[in-house]
Amino acid sequence: MMYDDSNIFARILRGEIPAKKIYEDDHVLAFHDAFPKAPLHALIIPKGKYINIDEFSKKASEEEIIAFYRAIPKVVEALGLGEKGFRTIANTGPDGGQEVPHFHIHIIGGKNIGPMVSA
Ligand code: AMP
What are the backbone dihedrals phi and psi of residue 92, each rounded to the nearest 5 degrees, phi first? Predict the structure, then answer.
């Protein structure tokens, strides 16, 4: 599968559509989900063109991977989620329910998120 430059997160990265930014550095952007599933719902994305966690973990440089992981506590702190906790989700592909084909993780909290997966 080829990376689709017209996906919505690519457009956010190019500044074509707005996002409520939480954190940004050379390799990473974090912003609020536009359709939050909980009181706090952030998305963290690499700036590089990676479709999903599988491709990112295979092809990204060590610098990109480290930057991505280091962004997580920055977002957690910005949202004040460290004490109460949160859920981290990376949907991948059709069976994973991934809607936007640019790798992202969800950070979801601000209430008890409930069972891990509802079948
Ligand atoms: P996924 O189903 O894992 O691909 O998640 C995609 C997420 O992107 C969903 O939670 C959407 O609510 C969110 N989303 C879609 N469009 C936007 C947007 N323009 N800005 C921020 N989040 C968005």
Answer: -135, 120
Grouping H, G, I as helix, E, B as strand and the rest as coil, residue 20 is: coil
CA dihedral in degrees (33, 35, 37, 39; nearest 10)? 70
Of these residues, 41, 102, 104, 106, which one is catalytic? 104
Architecture of domain 8-106: 2-Layer Sandwich (3.30)
Residue 117 — very low, low, confident or very high, per pLDDT cuts 50/70/90? confident
Q: Whose CA is nearest to atom 15 of ligand 1?
A: 34
Q: What is the pLDDT of residues 5-34, one digit of tens each?
A: 999 999 999 999 999 999 999 999 999 999
Domain boundaries, the chain: 8-106
End-to-end CA distance of the chain: 28
Asked if residue 83 has its Cβ within 6 Å of ligand 1, the reply is no
